Structures are given as structure tokens and as C-alpha cells.
Amino acid sequence: MLILMRLGATEEQIQEVCDAIKARGFDPLLLPGEDRRAVGVPAALSNDQKVDLEGVISRLPGVSKITQTSSPFKLASIEYHPNPTVIPVKDVEIGTDEFVVFGGPCSVESYEQFSTAAKMVKEAGSKVLRGGAFKPRTSPYSFQGLQEEGLRIIQQVGKETGLATISEVMAADMVETVAEYVDILQIGARSMQNFPLLIEAGKSGKPVFLKRGPAATIDEFLLASEYLLNQGNENVILCERGVLPIDRTYVRNTLDLNSVPVLKELTHLPVIVDPSHGVGVARYVPAMAKAAMFAGADGVMIEMHPDPREALSDGSQALDPATFSQLLGEFKQLAPIAGKRF
Length: 342
Ligand code: PEP
Ligand code: MN
What we know:
By secondary structure, the protein is α/β, with parallel strands linked by helices. The chain has 11 helices and 14 strands. The protein starts with a strand and ends in an 8-residue tail after the last helix.
């Protein structure tokens, strides 16, 4: 529910509205506006609750209009927050007209590998350095990541390069540890609906990069983001990384670029596209990365390995350094046409 106040409504009148909402057990949300203030009730209200609350509030002075919001997500909705959310991390802001590239290997494998990759992605124009330390692998026999040692390497290389860093956290009880080492917490696709993890990540106060589940609808994706937002964490970045394909003969996933303009219409949160996991085949990644820019994404996450043939995870989708830097060169040329800066 959204309560639009009249032009010139007083602080006392707004307070009265908030008190009426609180008296019925809900938390009011004050929404700043250019000239008119509004108050939101970010809760799933039953029909009886709607009628009751609307009846009481419509009689209060200073109230102009009450609308029932149609979306199941509230804090993520553009109705509650008409201006785009901008997330500052180190020297970069995510969610402006700057196209932000998150680059780096799938996994941190050693200090040498990660530091070499970091220098290359920075040189090419990336602002955020990615690297997995705790890896969600389909098989328990596959490389599981360097774990806390990997986090120490990320922190060190982050300091050396000045790049913002991101790494995945897989469990609620690991949030505090991962948050000590990196600038952005990544919630992997397989964890999108791990609600205890979302709640802890929400509480951490760190920016959270939420990947879309392989079979998640847009509403499920946004409701997962709502778990982070309603812990008081406003710094949520959405990542489209592809959904289960009909045909796995040629690609790993289907990169759902439809979701980009849809999400941009529904939410104020920044949207990043990950074409690496989205297609899973290195030679198709550049085309889909450029398509993501033109679909309106705020940036891309791209896996790059100094020597993809030697990669301990996701080697077949990792760009080699030359292709990575060529792609970022193309971003520079294309960005103005797509209405972006790079
Ligand atoms: C990753 O970013 O390396 C990763 C495991 O991604 P996803 O969760 O999208 O599969
Ligand atoms: Mn990967």
C-alpha cells in the first residue's frame, strides 16, 4: 500500500499516518519525493487489513491518495523507490550510466594466478575483481576452491590493485568471515532461495550481488532480493546469469536477456548480466556481453583466466586475456551508442 500525501502536508500529518500504520502492527516506510511525500506499507496485506487500514488512513488530514501496490515485492519495487539505486564500492558506483565490468577467474587458484588475472582485468578496464574461494560444484570430487586461503589472496590482491572485490558466500554461518575479506558478497544462483543465508547477508551491511536461480521466475528473484532489503540492506545488485536451457547440446544455460528490460521496469536495483555462466562457452560470451549492454544492463560479470586451458573450474567459458581486453575495447566504442559510459 502506498499513501501519497498532499502538497505541503506537515510533518505532524505524516507522523499521524505512520502512527496509524504502527498501531496496526505494520512498519511504515517514509518515501522521499521531489515535492510530495509518500508513506509505504511494505507488507503483504490481507483484504481485511487493506480495507481497515485504508478506511483509517483516508480520513487523516494531509492524505491525498491511497493506492494498493500490485507487486508481491515491495522494497525492491520501483513504485516504492522511483529513483535508481546507486551502490558505491571503492572507486566505482554501480547503477549509474557507467557500464561496470566485473572481471576475473571463476576460482582463485593461487596468489600468482589471481594477481596476474587481476592486473590484466584492471588494465583492460574492469573496476571489480571477481574470484571464487568457496565454490559451489556439482560434484564433491571437483575443486572446491581455496576457501579461506582464497579469501586472503583476494583481499591482498584487492589492496594491491585498488580494485573492488567480490566473492561467493555459500552458507549463513560464513557471511561474517567472507564479509571481512571482500567488498561485495556474492550469493550464487544455487543459493538464491537459501533464506537464512539471504537474511544473514542482508544483516551484514555489505553490498550483496544476488544471482538469479537457474529456474527462478522474475517474481521469485525479486522476492529473494526483498529478503536482503528488508534486513535494512539497501545495497543489492541483481545478476541475470541464465536459466535452464531447453537444449544443452550447444550451451550451458539460456541467458535470459528478456529479464533485463523487465527488471529495469519493475525495480530500482542495478542489474548486471553474467554471460559467462549464461552461455558457458567462451566463444559466445563476447556477443552476449555486448547484447547485455544494449539490453540496458548496468554492467557485466565476465570470467577471464590467464590460461583458460589450465583453469581448475569453468575453463571452457573463460575468456583468454587478449579476447577479454578486445571485448572491453569494443565496450568503449559501443557504450555511447547504448547511452552508457565506459
Ligand atoms: C560463479 O560466479 O562462479 C558461479 C558459480 O556462478 P552461478 O552461481 O551463477 O552458477
Ligand atoms: Mn564460474
